[in-house]
Structures are given as structure tokens and as C-alpha cells.
Write a structure and sequence with these properties.
single chain; alpha+beta; Rossmann fold; six-stranded mixed sheet; four-stranded antiparallel sheet; 26% helix; binds adenosine-5'-triphosphate
Length: 344
Amino acid sequence: MLRISNISKSFGVVKALNNINLEIDNGEFFSLLGPSGCGKTTLLRIISGFELPDNGEIILNEQNITNTKPYNRPTNLLFQSYALFPHLNVMQNISYGLQREKISKIEIDKRVNAIMEKTSLNGLQDRKPIELSGGQMQRVALARCLVKEPKILLLDEPLSALDKSLKEKMKIELKKIQKDFKTTFIMVTHDQDEALVLADKIAVMDNGEIIQVDTPKILYSSPKNYFVANFIGKMNFIEFNASNNETNTANKKLLNSGIIKDKNSKNILGIRPEDIYLTINETLNFEFEAEIIHVAYHGQEVELIAKSDLGFGEISIKADKSFHNVEKNSKISCFCNINSFKIY
Ligand code: ATP
């Protein structure tokens, strides 16, 4: 549906976007994810028409819209700050865009009422923005965009103004609303949890470039490189020096496993915390030792921070509450499948 082709953009000497290529399907919840300054807002602004690229094209349903003015594009941008009109009530805020389009009052009322129903705003029509909670304001802003029936809704960090518990609630609502309306959503965020929970597909960006585009599941299970592995979910990184002469049993087994690519220098091993077990079962074919440095309590779960005998770097291990009272500096045996290690 939307094809972003060879898009580049510089601001003076800063190359904000470097040859971006992306394809986004109809009805998809797509997320642009990356650290601050990686270029995601610039890309969103180019898709919405508020910024023009130096090079490249934006093709929507086979139509080149690269130079089309924002108000002539079938896209709508949900601002981070919601940008509601403070002097208008909820109903007036939502209907404002339609009134400017010279649609009949009957049709406007019909569409506004339908959207208020779907976004759970019934009963709040007469309230001014100042009389609304953060979550309600967010729903009004969403309703105001959706009532115009855009083909694509662009969302710039839509949950960033909400506190933690409201954010969790709105995440589920946002996903429900998107599936209900079947509108294509493109959401910018630097919050990996938000992207993993909401998006059908995620483009991970760094330094003006797209590093990997995949479903949340594939990004998590098969990150393409160190940057993605480090950015998506928690990953333990161990600096394994293959040329170390004092190799212990675990090191020797790793060296002979075929995982280690460069036997003459250091290798960065990555393993997810949930792939390390503290009791053995028949699927786990590798054992190593670790020394506990710190025990962090998370209610029912315990996180053990430890130093393994595989090399340099602290690792995080998930444990159950029976490890609440484990002593610092005590040694533990860790078990995993040798194929859970990946080299970065
Ligand atoms: P954040 O998450 O912090 O909003 P971002 O990933 O959205 O960051 P952009 O806002 O797209 O990043 O900015 C990308 C780069 O371009 C940054 O180095 C930024 O300073 C620069 N930049 C963006 N807009 C302008 C502008 N109008 N003038 C000059 N430099 C800009």
C-alpha cells in the first residue's frame, strides 16, 4: 500500500535519513523504533508531508505523493501533545475537521457519534480538554483523527504523555481500535515494549538507517546484529576469548561446538536470560558455572546478576522465589542449550 523508496534527508551537515526503503501493507500496525535522534520523526513527517525529502519517493496505492501537501494526503498525524483545542468541548474537537470539509450536519453528527461510541467517549461530549484525564484526552485526539477516515494514521510517540499504568491500558485500547477500524497505523516510538506489544511489523532504525524490518517475534528471536539484539528485549552479552589458554570444560565444549567463528580472538556471545536454567532437563546440553554478584527482587521472580566462567561480562538469570535468600558470591550451575548462544 505504502512504498517508501530511496528516501534521504539532511539538515545541514546532519544526515537524518540515509536511503530509506520500506513497504507497509494495508491495515498493518507498523512501528518505527529506534533511539533518540535516529531519524524516525523525520521519516514520519516526510510520510505526512510536513517535511520534504532531498531524494526519493513516497508512493501510496501506486500514486506518487512525495510533493503532495499534507492536507491533500489521505494521512492524518496524531501529535505527541494531542493538540486539542482548549476552548472547544469533546464533540466540537472531534467534529472540527469535518466541519471544514463542508459535510452536512446530519452526516457529521452521525460520524462523530459513531466514533465516540467506538473510542468509549460517550457521556464526555460536553467536557473541555482541561476536564479530561490523560487517557481520555488521548482517545479524543485519536477520535478526531479517525473521524476523517484517513487511509493511514501516523502516530508520534502516542503514549509518551501517559503514566505507567495508563500507558499499559491504552496500549491494549490502541491495538483494539486499530484492528476495529482496519486503518493502517504507523507509530514512532523509542520504547521497545510498546512496539513489541502493538506492532504487526517493526522497522528498527539507527543513525538514519533501517537496520531490520520484521515481525516482533522474529526481531526478538533472530536479531540481525548486535545493535538489534541489544535494543530489542534483554540480552546477555559475554566476551568470549577463544585464544585464552586456561580453557575450562565449558570453554572447550563451546570451542568445539562450531558456534565460535573466530578461534583466534574475542567473540561476543549473546544469550537471552530466559534461555538460562538453574536446573537441568533433557533438552539442555550445556553447563557452565557462575558466581552471584547481586540478587534483585521482582515480587514472585528473582533476577540473579552473575559472572560466568565463560568470559567477561555480567549475565542476568531469571530465578524463582526459592532463590530469594541465595548468598552473594555463591557459585551456581547454569544450564542451557548450546544453540541458544549466538555470536554478534
Ligand atoms: P527523538 O526520538 O529524540 O524524537 P528521532 O529519532 O525522532 O528522535 P529526528 O527528530 O528525526 O530523530 O532527528 C534526526 C536527526 O535530525 C537528529 O540529529 C536531529 O537533531 C536532526 N534534525 C531533525 N529535525 C531537524 C531540523 N529541523 N533542523 C536541524 N536538524 C534536525
